Amino acid sequence: MDMDKRIHLELRNRTPSEVKELILDNCRSNEGKIKGLTNEFEELEFLSTINVGLTSVANLPKLNKLKKLELSDNRISGGLEVLAEKCPNLMHLNLSGNKIKDLGTIEPLKKLENLKILDLFNCEVTNLNNYRQNVFKLLPQLRYLDGYDQDEKEAPDSDAEGFIEGLDDEEEDEDEEDYDEDAQLVEDEEDEEEEDESEEEDVSEEEEDEEGYNDWEVDDEEDEEHPGGMAAFLLLAEEERGQKRKREPEDEGEEDD
Predict the structure, then answer these.
(1) Phi then psi for 142, rounded to 5 degrees?
(2) What confidence tier does 202 reach under pLDDT thresholds 50, 70, 90?
(3) Rounded CA gap, 85 and 68, in Å?
(4) Based on C-alpha coordinates, what's the Rg of the chain?
(5) Segment 123-153, tens digit of pLDDT
(6) In the prediction, which pLDDT does 192 show?
(7) Which of 46, 48, 121, 180 could connect to 70 by a Cys-Cys bridge, CB 3.0–4.6 Å?
(8) How far apart are CA 247 and CA 25, in angstroms?
(9) Region 60-76 average pLDDT
(10) Are 132 and 153 in contact (CB under 8 A)?
């Protein structure tokens, strides 16, 4: 079946913008090029074109959301620079079983900043000395090459779509950690400001208490400076009452006369 007819079949009454996964394995390409795939597949995240006779990916449309691209068992020997332009967010690229012979052919992939997984099984390039070491050096953004990381640890379910989603989650977790650290710094600064304000309030209260204590001391000092002041006042008042009592009988005698 021709590729364009296969694409029409895979739509299943959907519009291209509704398709997130498109599998075109074992159909026939148009003279080694992609045919029937357009920019309308703007939501496409996974595209598989295994064993379709591709010799070039030049006709690949702009697929900004594409994360995984299967190109294994074709006859591609170069022209990979188009992938950085057409699929800038690609994370998993399978080129196994193609005619890739040297590191220069895959060098354009270093422009795919999000590329984490690359498969080159059954390509001649894998026979080069220090192949794995040189590929990881050439493409530092890679996490797994041919199913293993730099420490020869196997990738968990590297062919599963869930693994790609897991990589996305890890990046989101890192962003959240950065956000949490920033939020914690802000919270700590606010706590320090509250502590400073509380200390200032305590100092103010202590100063008020000291002022009140000093006023009380001043009153006591005034009393100590005039110890007889109150007694003298009382004595003077008693003398005035005595003189008043003496005058009252004299006034009565004068009235009788």
Answers:
(1) -65, 140
(2) low
(3) 15
(4) 47
(5) 999 999 999 999 999 999 999 999 999 999 9
(6) 73
(7) 48
(8) 138
(9) 98
(10) no
Pairing between β-strand 46-48 and β-strand 68-70 as defined by DSSP bridges: parallel
Of 230 and 256, the one with more pLDDT: 230
- pLDDT of 223 reads 47
Residue 3 token pair: 């590729």
- Give residue 209's identity as a one-letter amino acid code: D
> pLDDT class for 37, splitting at 50, 70, 90?
very high
DSSP string, the chain: -BHHHHHHHHHTT--GGG-SEEE-TT-B-BTTB--S--TT-TT--EEE-TTS--S--TTPPP-TT--EEE--SS---S-THHHHHH-TT--EEE-TTS---SHHHHGGGGG-TT--EEE-TT-GGGGSTTHHHHHHHH-TT-SEETTB-TTSPBPTTTTSHHHHHHHHHHHHHHHHHHHHHHHHHHHHHHHHHHHHHHHHHHHHHHHHHHHHHHHHHHHHHHHHH-TTHHHHHHHHHHHHHHHHHHHHHHHHHHHH-
Answer yes or no: are the C-beta atoms of 40 and 64 closer than 8 Å. no
Which residue type, as a one-letter code, is found at position 32? G
Are the CB atoms for 45 and 66 separated by under 8 Å? yes
- Whether the pLDDT of residue 246 is over 70: the answer is no
Beta bridge partners of 118: 93, 145
Cα-Cα end-to-end distance for the chain: 157
- Residue 109 in this model has a pLDDT that exceeds 90: yes
Nearest by Cα to 69 from 35, 128, 118? 118
